[in-house]
Amino acid sequence: MAPTRWGFVATGRICNDFKVALDTLPRDEHQVVAVASRSLETAQKFAKTHNIPKAYGSYAELAEQEDIDVVYIGAVHPQHAPVTTMMLQAGKPVLCEKPMAVNSREARQMIGLAKEKNLFFMEAIWSRYFPVYKKVREMIDSGAVGDVKLVTACLGKVVPQAKLERSVAGGGLLGLGIYTIQFATMVFGEEEPEDITVSGHLTDGGVDETVTIVLKYSGNRMATLISGASANLANEAYVYGTKGSIKVPFFWCPTEVIAPDGTHEFPLPPPEKPLNYENTGLRFEAMEVRRCLQEGLKESPLMTHAMSLQIAGILDQTRKVVGVVYDQDKE
Length: 331
Known about the structure:
Keywords: Oxidoreductase. By secondary structure, this protein is an alpha/beta fold. The protein has helices at about 15-20, 40-50, 60-65, 80-90, 105-115, 130-140, 170-185, 285-295, 305-320, and strands at about 5-10, 30-35, 55, 70-75, 95, 120-125, 150-155, 195-200, 210-215, 220-230, 235-240, 245-250, 255-260, 260-265.
C-alpha cells in the first residue's frame, strides 16, 4: 500500500504538532511532501525543521502540485473556507482544522463543493478520532451506565487578550467551546437538541470570554457545557446515566476514561520534537483520513458532514445570543 502524501497549508502551532504526530506513524503510511505559507521564507523554515521536500510561498502553488493525496489546512479560522474551496476546486481531498468554517453558511458551501467534486472532506476535530471516544460510545451503547440523562463538559484556560482577537475569529467559542459541543453531540448521536439556552459575556473587545450552553434533548436529557478564556477550569467531561457515570479527563485529547468497571488507558507515543499542545493524538485523525481514502469514502463516519453542520449550527446560535459577530456573518 503506497503512503498517503500530505500537503500542508500554513506553518503555525497546530501544523507543527500535526507533523510531529505524523512522525509517530510508519513512514510507509504517511509522508508530508509539501508545505505552503503566505511567505516563502516561513515555508522554507518549516520544511527545513520538519524535513519536508517542497516549500511554497503561496497556497495556490501547493494546490497545483500533482503528487499530493490530501491537503491539511491549519491556517487561521477565517482562512479555512477560502483555502478549502481553493483546494477542492483543484481536485484535492481536504482535512480542514476545526472549526471547519466561521459559520454554517460557509460550512454548507464547503461541504456542497466537496460533494459536487466527489472529493473526501473532513473536519479535524481531533477529539473525535481518539480511541477513548470509541470506548465511551461502546460503553453507552452496551448500557454500562444505563440510560444517559446528563452530559457535562467544561473547558477553560486563561487566554491572553491579544490571542482572543476577533480579527482571526478567535474567542472562547470557536477555539474551546467547540470541544464541549462536539462531546455532547457525540454522546447524543446526531439527534438535534430540542432547545438551546445560552448565557455568556464578551470582553471589551467584543470577544466571547465565558459561555455556558445548555442543550435540552428529548426525554428531558441535557448537556451543560461551559467554556471560557478567563480562568483555568477542571477541563473534564462526564456522562451520567441511570446506572453509573463515565468521566473523561482532558476530554478534547483524552488518554483515559474512568468508567463503572475501572479506568481504561490508551497511552500515546511520546513526541520526537517539541509540541505546542497536549500530546501526539493528532495521529488518530491522520489514520482515519488514510483509512477513508483507501476505502474510497468521501466523509468519515466518525465526523460526518452532518455532524460538522450540526456543530456549526449550535455555534451560530450560541454566538448570536452572546453577541459575537464576525465579518463573515455579514456577507
